[in-house]
Amino acid sequence: MFSKACQYAIRAVLYIATQSEQGRRTSLKDISKEIDSPEAFTAKILQQLSKNSILLSIKGPNGGFEIPDETMKRVKLIEIVRIIDGDQLFTGCALGLKACNEEKPCPLHNQFLGIRTNIHQLLENTTIKKLVNDLELGLTFLKR
Amino acid sequence: MFSKACQYAIRAVLYIATQSEQGRRTSLKDISKEIDSPEAFTAKILQQLSKNSILLSIKGPNGGFEIPDETMKRVKLIEIVRIIDGDQLFTGCALGLKACNEEKPCPLHNQFLGIRTNIHQLLENTTIKKLVNDLELGLTFLKR
DNA sequence: ATTATTTAGGATAAATTTGTCCGAAATAAA
DNA sequence: TTTATTTCGGACAAATTTATCCTAAATAAT
After folding, report:
1. Which of A27, A67, A136, B28 is buried deepest, with most CB atoms within 10 A?
2. How far, in Å, CA of B13 to CA of B49, rounded?
3. In b/e form, how buried is each residue of B30-64, taking b as 16+ CB within 10 angstroms?
4. Which contacts qualify for A18-25: CB closer than 8 Å, 24 or more apart?
5. ipTM of the complex
6. Residue B37 CA to nucleotide C20 C1', Å?
7. Residue B96: which of A26, A38, A129 has the closest Cα?
8. pLDDT, tens digit, 9 for 90 and up, residues A8-63
């Protein structure tokens, strides 16, 4: 469904967000330990996310990553997915046909229409903040 | 969603099936031309499918591939997907967590529960035959 | 100023997926 | 029996994704 990069991205953002909620800035090292991801690879992903203003990066001692409360309220999952994986997941044809559309549908077009819409809506309607709340309430988990 | 190999697999099976319906055996060359896929790569995929008795392969002059009517009635999409891509798509965790389950759900677990169930049901309930009917009625298309 | 810490970014490498090439095996037809 | 056709299967190659390494840049603390 999502690439590994995208899975790491979402996991990292959520972890950073929980820490930011507590007023704590968190380092790459912490993040990759906590979400169990390869450090250097995660660094690249976080770089991309901060370039796209999903998160803030601060260099130097006591540096690290942060997500302002305003940002986690505003940013939806779909933005992260778009940055890392693009939008093939919810716009592309299930069978990989370029010409597939409403007029010339592939054999799976109509079957997948609903599913793709569901995925799109889910990603569109889910903010980081919402997911962080569940994490803080101990309703969901990030490890392993 | 599906790997390229899996997209080719489904497209090939559907094309072979439409031909089999007409009593025509079809060659690798034809298939890859009709579904616009790399020939040698498609050969590997068809090999896998015939090993798994999704289709029949016949060597020699006038050889090629066939799908008996009984088979296309019986075989569901999920079997093809399982053979080529495995079942990660409908069993794995969206965030790639091994330990994710009902008791210790990842932050996306509940959101994706419905979608994954939908995908699973769709693949489980869709036979090759059903898709071939739509193709023959000109309701759906396989090219590009 | 110097040093230590931390992210940025480029180069490189490993792993996986996608794709190609070619000789072997099967088999139908001449 | 020879030849032509077609799939099989192994080795190899290219492309993409995942992952590592190292130096540079920033910056806080000493």
Report:
1. A67
2. 9
3. bbbebbebeeeebeebbeebbeeebbbbeeeeeeb
4. A18/A132, A18/A135, A18/A136, A20/A66, A20/A67, A20/A68, A20/A69, A20/A72, A21/A69, A21/A132, A21/A136, A25/A58, A25/A62, A25/A63, A25/A64, A25/A65, A25/A66
5. 0.94
6. 13
7. A38
8. 999 999 999 999 999 999 999 999 999 999 999 999 999 999 999 999 999 999 99
Residue type, B86: G
Q: Name the token pair of A29.
A: 């090292």
**Token output for B139:** 């309701």
For B85, residues 6+ apart whose C-beta sits below 8 A from its C-beta are B2, B3, B5, B6
Residue B143: pLDDT band by 50, 70, 90 thresholds? confident
Asked if B131 and B76 touch (Cβ cutoff 8 Å), the reply is no
Rounded CA–C1' distance between A79 and D22, in angstroms: 32
List of domains in chain B: 4-136 (1.10.10.10)
> Reduced to 3 states, what is the DSSP secondary structure of residue A58?
strand
Asked if strand C comes closer than 7 Å to B38 Cβ, the answer is yes
